[in-house]
Amino acid sequence: MDLRHLRYFVVLAEQRHFGRAAELLNMAQPPLSQQIKALEDELEVTLFDRSTRPIELTAAGRTLLREARQILHHVSRAQAATRRAGQGQDGHLVIGVTGSAAMEFLPPVLLAFRARWPDIRLSLREMSSPEQIAALERGEIHIGFVRPPVLDDRLNVRLVHQDPFVVALPGDHPQAGVEGVRLADLNGTALIIFDPAEAPGFRDLIIHVCRTAGYVPETLESAPQMTTMLALVSAGLGFALVPRSARRLALERVVFRPLLDPCAAVELYAVWSRDKAVRLAEELVSVIDEARYAAPGPSVPADEGR
Protein backbone atom coordinates (compact mmCIF):
# COMPACT_ATOMS: atom_id res chain seq x y z
CA MET A 1 0.00 0.00 0.00
CA ASP A 2 1.56 3.32 -1.02
CA LEU A 3 0.68 6.91 -0.11
CA ARG A 4 -0.67 7.64 -3.57
CA HIS A 5 -3.34 4.96 -3.16
CA LEU A 6 -4.26 6.34 0.25
CA ARG A 7 -4.62 9.87 -1.11
CA TYR A 8 -6.80 8.65 -3.97
CA PHE A 9 -8.91 6.68 -1.52
CA VAL A 10 -9.41 9.62 0.88
CA VAL A 11 -10.46 12.01 -1.88
CA LEU A 12 -12.94 9.47 -3.26
CA ALA A 13 -14.29 8.72 0.22
CA GLU A 14 -14.90 12.43 0.81
CA GLN A 15 -16.44 13.10 -2.62
CA ARG A 16 -18.38 9.80 -2.85
CA HIS A 17 -18.31 10.18 -6.63
CA PHE A 18 -15.66 8.85 -9.00
CA GLY A 19 -16.05 11.69 -11.50
CA ARG A 20 -15.68 14.52 -8.95
CA ALA A 21 -12.80 12.75 -7.21
CA ALA A 22 -10.96 12.23 -10.50
CA GLU A 23 -11.41 15.91 -11.35
CA LEU A 24 -9.96 17.00 -8.00
CA LEU A 25 -7.04 14.63 -8.49
CA ASN A 26 -6.42 15.91 -12.04
CA MET A 27 -6.76 12.46 -13.54
CA ALA A 28 -9.23 10.55 -15.69
CA GLN A 29 -11.91 8.45 -14.02
CA PRO A 30 -10.86 5.00 -15.39
CA PRO A 31 -7.32 5.17 -13.89
CA LEU A 32 -8.80 6.22 -10.55
CA SER A 33 -11.20 3.27 -10.63
CA GLN A 34 -8.29 0.96 -11.42
CA GLN A 35 -6.17 2.32 -8.57
CA ILE A 36 -9.01 1.90 -6.05
CA LYS A 37 -9.67 -1.64 -7.30
CA ALA A 38 -5.95 -2.42 -6.94
CA LEU A 39 -6.07 -1.14 -3.36
CA GLU A 40 -9.10 -3.33 -2.61
CA ASP A 41 -7.36 -6.35 -4.14
CA GLU A 42 -4.25 -5.70 -2.07
CA LEU A 43 -6.25 -5.44 1.15
CA GLU A 44 -8.63 -8.24 0.12
CA VAL A 45 -11.68 -6.16 1.09
CA THR A 46 -14.37 -4.08 -0.60
CA LEU A 47 -13.99 -0.43 0.37
CA PHE A 48 -17.00 1.07 -1.44
CA ASP A 49 -20.55 -0.01 -2.05
CA ARG A 50 -20.85 0.94 -5.72
CA SER A 51 -24.51 -0.04 -5.97
CA THR A 52 -25.65 3.20 -4.31
CA ARG A 53 -25.65 6.74 -5.64
CA PRO A 54 -23.66 8.41 -4.25
CA ILE A 55 -21.32 5.53 -3.44
CA GLU A 56 -21.00 4.61 0.23
CA LEU A 57 -18.11 3.36 2.33
CA THR A 58 -18.29 -0.18 3.64
CA ALA A 59 -17.31 -0.96 7.23
CA ALA A 60 -13.80 -1.75 5.98
CA GLY A 61 -13.76 1.52 4.05
CA ARG A 62 -14.74 3.55 7.11
CA THR A 63 -11.95 1.94 9.09
CA LEU A 64 -9.38 2.65 6.39
CA LEU A 65 -10.59 6.26 6.03
CA ARG A 66 -9.95 6.93 9.71
CA GLU A 67 -6.48 5.36 9.57
CA ALA A 68 -5.57 6.87 6.18
CA ARG A 69 -6.33 10.39 7.34
CA GLN A 70 -4.07 9.95 10.32
CA ILE A 71 -1.28 8.49 8.18
CA LEU A 72 -1.48 11.29 5.61
CA HIS A 73 -1.62 13.89 8.36
CA HIS A 74 1.53 12.54 10.00
CA VAL A 75 3.30 12.30 6.65
CA SER A 76 2.36 15.90 5.91
CA ARG A 77 3.70 17.01 9.29
CA ALA A 78 6.92 15.08 8.75
CA GLN A 79 7.40 16.64 5.32
CA ALA A 80 6.72 20.13 6.63
CA ALA A 81 9.06 19.72 9.59
CA THR A 82 11.82 18.39 7.34
CA ARG A 83 11.45 21.27 4.87
CA ARG A 84 11.50 23.82 7.69
CA ALA A 85 14.70 22.28 9.02
CA GLY A 86 16.27 22.35 5.57
CA GLN A 87 14.97 25.73 4.37
CA GLY A 88 14.52 27.66 7.58
CA GLN A 89 11.32 29.31 8.76
CA ASP A 90 10.75 32.88 9.89
CA GLY A 91 8.34 31.76 12.61
CA HIS A 92 5.65 34.30 11.69
CA LEU A 93 2.19 33.61 10.27
CA VAL A 94 -0.03 36.51 9.13
CA ILE A 95 -3.71 35.59 8.94
CA GLY A 96 -6.54 37.49 7.29
CA VAL A 97 -10.04 36.93 8.60
CA THR A 98 -13.58 38.26 8.24
CA GLY A 99 -15.13 39.71 11.36
CA SER A 100 -17.71 36.96 11.85
CA ALA A 101 -15.10 34.19 11.51
CA ALA A 102 -12.87 35.93 14.06
CA MET A 103 -15.66 35.80 16.62
CA GLU A 104 -16.30 32.07 16.84
CA PHE A 105 -14.49 29.85 14.35
CA LEU A 106 -10.92 31.07 14.58
CA PRO A 107 -10.15 31.33 18.34
CA PRO A 108 -10.18 27.55 19.07
CA VAL A 109 -8.21 26.95 15.87
CA LEU A 110 -5.51 29.36 16.97
CA LEU A 111 -5.41 27.79 20.42
CA ALA A 112 -4.82 24.37 18.87
CA PHE A 113 -2.18 25.78 16.51
CA ARG A 114 -0.40 27.58 19.35
CA ALA A 115 -0.36 24.35 21.39
CA ARG A 116 1.43 22.63 18.51
CA TRP A 117 3.69 25.53 17.52
CA PRO A 118 4.21 27.61 20.68
CA ASP A 119 7.15 29.57 19.24
CA ILE A 120 5.34 30.80 16.13
CA ARG A 121 4.26 34.44 16.18
CA LEU A 122 0.69 34.97 14.92
CA SER A 123 -0.70 38.21 13.49
CA LEU A 124 -4.40 38.70 12.67
CA ARG A 125 -5.77 41.23 10.23
CA GLU A 126 -9.52 41.73 9.97
CA MET A 127 -10.40 42.29 6.32
CA SER A 128 -13.27 41.83 3.94
CA SER A 129 -13.06 38.81 1.63
CA PRO A 130 -12.03 40.85 -1.46
CA GLU A 131 -9.36 42.62 0.61
CA GLN A 132 -7.94 39.29 1.71
CA ILE A 133 -7.67 38.00 -1.86
CA ALA A 134 -5.77 41.14 -2.84
CA ALA A 135 -3.56 40.92 0.26
CA LEU A 136 -2.63 37.32 -0.58
CA GLU A 137 -1.61 38.39 -4.06
CA ARG A 138 0.59 41.15 -2.62
CA GLY A 139 2.11 38.78 -0.05
CA GLU A 140 0.78 40.83 2.88
CA ILE A 141 -0.93 37.83 4.50
CA HIS A 142 -0.07 34.13 4.33
CA ILE A 143 -3.58 32.68 4.65
CA GLY A 144 -7.09 34.09 4.66
CA PHE A 145 -10.54 33.01 5.82
CA VAL A 146 -13.14 34.29 3.36
CA ARG A 147 -16.74 33.98 2.27
CA PRO A 148 -17.49 32.65 -1.22
CA PRO A 149 -17.15 32.95 -4.10
CA VAL A 150 -13.41 32.40 -4.55
CA LEU A 151 -12.66 32.51 -8.27
CA ASP A 152 -8.86 32.93 -8.31
CA ASP A 153 -7.27 29.71 -9.59
CA ARG A 154 -3.92 30.79 -8.14
CA LEU A 155 -5.22 29.99 -4.67
CA ASN A 156 -5.65 26.79 -2.73
CA VAL A 157 -9.22 26.75 -1.42
CA ARG A 158 -10.55 24.61 1.43
CA LEU A 159 -14.04 24.65 2.98
CA VAL A 160 -13.42 24.83 6.74
CA HIS A 161 -16.68 25.83 8.40
CA GLN A 162 -20.42 26.16 7.85
CA ASP A 163 -22.60 28.40 9.98
CA PRO A 164 -26.41 28.53 9.88
CA PHE A 165 -28.16 31.84 9.30
CA VAL A 166 -30.01 33.54 12.13
CA VAL A 167 -32.21 36.63 12.02
CA ALA A 168 -31.02 39.72 13.93
CA LEU A 169 -33.97 41.88 14.94
CA PRO A 170 -34.52 45.05 16.96
CA GLY A 171 -35.69 44.10 20.44
CA ASP A 172 -39.03 45.88 19.96
CA HIS A 173 -39.85 44.26 16.61
CA PRO A 174 -43.12 42.23 16.59
CA GLN A 175 -41.18 39.10 15.54
CA ALA A 176 -38.59 39.48 18.30
CA GLY A 177 -40.70 37.50 20.73
CA VAL A 178 -41.27 34.40 18.58
CA GLU A 179 -39.18 31.24 18.75
CA GLY A 180 -38.28 31.25 15.06
CA VAL A 181 -38.74 33.60 12.12
CA ARG A 182 -39.89 33.13 8.55
CA LEU A 183 -38.64 35.81 6.22
CA ALA A 184 -42.02 36.28 4.56
CA ASP A 185 -43.27 37.56 7.93
CA LEU A 186 -40.71 40.38 7.73
CA ASN A 187 -42.11 41.97 4.58
CA GLY A 188 -42.37 45.68 5.29
CA THR A 189 -39.20 45.62 7.44
CA ALA A 190 -36.04 46.98 5.83
CA LEU A 191 -33.17 44.57 5.17
CA ILE A 192 -29.73 45.58 6.39
CA ILE A 193 -27.10 43.95 4.22
CA PHE A 194 -23.40 44.03 3.38
CA ASP A 195 -22.12 46.72 1.05
CA PRO A 196 -21.47 45.11 -2.38
CA ALA A 197 -17.86 46.34 -2.39
CA GLU A 198 -17.10 44.62 0.93
CA ALA A 199 -18.78 41.22 0.58
CA PRO A 200 -20.36 40.80 -2.87
CA GLY A 201 -20.76 37.02 -2.66
CA PHE A 202 -22.24 37.13 0.83
CA ARG A 203 -24.63 39.90 -0.21
CA ASP A 204 -25.81 37.92 -3.24
CA LEU A 205 -26.39 34.84 -1.06
CA ILE A 206 -28.52 36.80 1.41
CA ILE A 207 -30.62 38.33 -1.36
CA HIS A 208 -31.13 34.87 -2.89
CA VAL A 209 -32.21 33.42 0.47
CA CYS A 210 -34.67 36.27 0.99
CA ARG A 211 -36.23 36.00 -2.46
CA THR A 212 -36.53 32.23 -2.22
CA ALA A 213 -38.31 32.56 1.13
CA GLY A 214 -40.81 35.13 -0.17
CA TYR A 215 -39.31 38.24 1.39
CA VAL A 216 -39.34 41.27 -0.91
CA PRO A 217 -37.36 44.16 0.57
CA GLU A 218 -38.93 47.56 0.22
CA THR A 219 -35.72 49.14 1.47
CA LEU A 220 -32.09 47.99 1.54
CA GLU A 221 -29.65 49.50 4.01
CA SER A 222 -25.97 48.73 3.27
CA ALA A 223 -23.20 48.47 5.82
CA PRO A 224 -19.50 47.66 5.43
CA GLN A 225 -19.04 45.34 8.42
CA MET A 226 -21.02 42.97 10.64
CA THR A 227 -20.74 45.28 13.64
CA THR A 228 -22.15 48.18 11.61
CA MET A 229 -25.02 46.02 10.39
CA LEU A 230 -25.95 45.06 13.93
CA ALA A 231 -25.62 48.66 15.10
CA LEU A 232 -28.23 49.62 12.49
CA VAL A 233 -30.44 46.77 13.72
CA SER A 234 -30.03 48.06 17.28
CA ALA A 235 -31.14 51.50 16.08
CA GLY A 236 -34.34 49.96 14.73
CA LEU A 237 -33.57 50.58 11.06
CA GLY A 238 -34.28 47.01 9.95
CA PHE A 239 -33.28 43.38 10.34
CA ALA A 240 -30.23 41.46 9.17
CA LEU A 241 -29.49 37.89 8.14
CA VAL A 242 -26.19 36.97 9.78
CA PRO A 243 -24.16 33.85 10.59
CA ARG A 244 -24.98 32.33 13.96
CA SER A 245 -21.49 33.31 15.17
CA ALA A 246 -22.56 36.98 15.02
CA ARG A 247 -24.49 36.43 18.25
CA ARG A 248 -21.11 36.83 19.96
CA LEU A 249 -21.47 40.56 19.37
CA ALA A 250 -23.34 41.69 22.46
CA LEU A 251 -25.20 44.76 21.20
CA GLU A 252 -28.08 46.15 23.22
CA ARG A 253 -31.58 45.99 21.74
CA VAL A 254 -30.61 43.24 19.27
CA VAL A 255 -32.09 39.75 19.51
CA PHE A 256 -31.21 36.72 17.41
CA ARG A 257 -33.85 34.24 16.32
CA PRO A 258 -33.46 30.97 14.36
CA LEU A 259 -34.37 31.17 10.68
CA LEU A 260 -37.17 28.71 9.92
CA ASP A 261 -36.87 28.93 6.13
CA PRO A 262 -34.68 26.18 4.64
CA CYS A 263 -31.50 27.57 3.12
CA ALA A 264 -27.83 26.82 2.65
CA ALA A 265 -25.44 27.49 5.50
CA VAL A 266 -22.93 30.32 5.43
CA GLU A 267 -19.65 28.85 4.22
CA LEU A 268 -16.15 29.87 5.26
CA TYR A 269 -13.10 28.97 3.17
CA ALA A 270 -9.40 28.94 3.93
CA VAL A 271 -7.40 30.35 1.02
CA TRP A 272 -3.65 30.46 0.52
CA SER A 273 -1.32 30.88 -2.42
CA ARG A 274 -0.41 28.00 -4.71
CA ASP A 275 2.70 29.85 -5.88
CA LYS A 276 4.15 31.08 -2.59
CA ALA A 277 4.66 28.02 -0.44
CA VAL A 278 4.07 28.96 3.20
CA ARG A 279 4.44 25.86 5.33
CA LEU A 280 2.89 27.44 8.40
CA ALA A 281 -0.28 28.20 6.42
CA GLU A 282 -0.46 24.53 5.49
CA GLU A 283 0.11 23.58 9.12
CA LEU A 284 -2.81 25.80 10.16
CA VAL A 285 -5.06 24.07 7.63
CA SER A 286 -3.81 20.73 8.95
CA VAL A 287 -4.89 21.73 12.46
CA ILE A 288 -8.34 22.63 11.12
CA ASP A 289 -8.62 19.33 9.23
CA GLU A 290 -7.66 17.38 12.33
CA ALA A 291 -10.35 19.13 14.37
CA ARG A 292 -12.99 18.54 11.67
CA TYR A 293 -12.23 14.82 11.50
CA ALA A 294 -12.38 14.42 15.27
CA ALA A 295 -15.56 13.09 16.83
CA PRO A 296 -18.09 15.94 16.90
CA GLY A 297 -19.24 17.29 20.21
CA PRO A 298 -22.71 18.55 21.08
CA SER A 299 -23.98 21.29 18.82
CA VAL A 300 -24.25 24.82 20.11
CA PRO A 301 -27.80 26.17 20.02
CA ALA A 302 -28.51 29.51 18.41
CA ASP A 303 -28.49 32.33 20.92
CA GLU A 304 -32.02 33.39 21.76
CA GLY A 305 -31.10 37.01 22.20
CA ARG A 306 -29.31 39.66 24.16
Order of helices and strands: HHHEEHEHHEHEEEEHEHEEEH
Query: Count of helices?
Result: 10
Number of strands: 12
Number of individual domains: 3
Q: Which regions are unreliable across 5 or more consecutive residues at pLDDT < 50? A: 295-306
Q: What's the CATH H-level superfamily name of the largest domain?
A: Periplasmic binding protein-like II
Largest sheet: 5 strands, mixed
What spatial order of strands do you see in the largest sheet? 4-3-5-12-6
How much is the radius of gyration in Å?
A: 22 Å
- Going by helix content, strand content and strand pairing, the class is alpha/beta
Helix content: 40-55%
Query: In percent terms, what proportion of residues is strand?
Result: 15-25%
What is the CA-CA span between the terminal residues?
A: 55 Å
Identify the CATH class of the largest domain.
Alpha Beta
Write the layout of secondary structure elements.
Elements: H1 3-15, H2 18-24, H3 29-43, E1 48-49, E2 56-57, H4 59-87, E3 92-97, H5 99-103, H6 106-116, E4 121-126, H7 129-138, E5 143-146, E6 155-163, E7 165-170, E8 191-194, H8 200-212, E9 220-223, H9 226-234, E10 239-243, E11 254-258, E12 266-273, H10 279-293
Helix pairs in contact: 1-2, 1-4, 4-10, 6-10
Structure in words:
The chain is globular. Residues 295-306 have low confidence and may be disordered. Helix content is 42%, strand content 20%. The chain is of the alpha/beta class. The longest helix has 29 residues, at 59-87. The strands form three sheets. Strands 4-3-5-12-6 form a five-stranded mixed beta sheet, sandwiched between helices. It starts with a helix and ends in a 13-residue tail after the last helix. Pfam families: HTH_1 (PF00126), LysR_substrate (PF03466). It comes from Methylobacterium nodulans (strain LMG 21967 / CNCM I-2342 / ORS 2060).
